[in-house]
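User: Hi! Is it possible to get a structure for several chains at once, not just one? Here's what I have:
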Amino acid sequence: MSPGFLGSESLVSGSKWFLERTRLAFGGEEIAKPNNFGMVYIPGFRCRDCRTLLLQYPADPKAPPA
Ligand SMILES: [Zn+2]
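Assistant: Yes, the chains can be modeled jointly so their relative placement is included. Here is the combined structure:
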């Protein structure tokens, strides 16, 4: 596993966790806020062999992003 960040453009709201896919991404629990440039970065690890991401989102998603 090698460390890095999952980065996503997120201009309207942050990254959300869903129990199932919804049509227009309504609902879901926001787990990470975008920074002032509309990007979410979630730190974690990636395994290139089995293509698994292991992410650790912030304890307080309402706090300003680092
Ligand atoms: Zn692996």
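DSSP finds no helices and five strands in the chain. The first strand starts at residue 2 and ends at 9.

User: Great, thank you!
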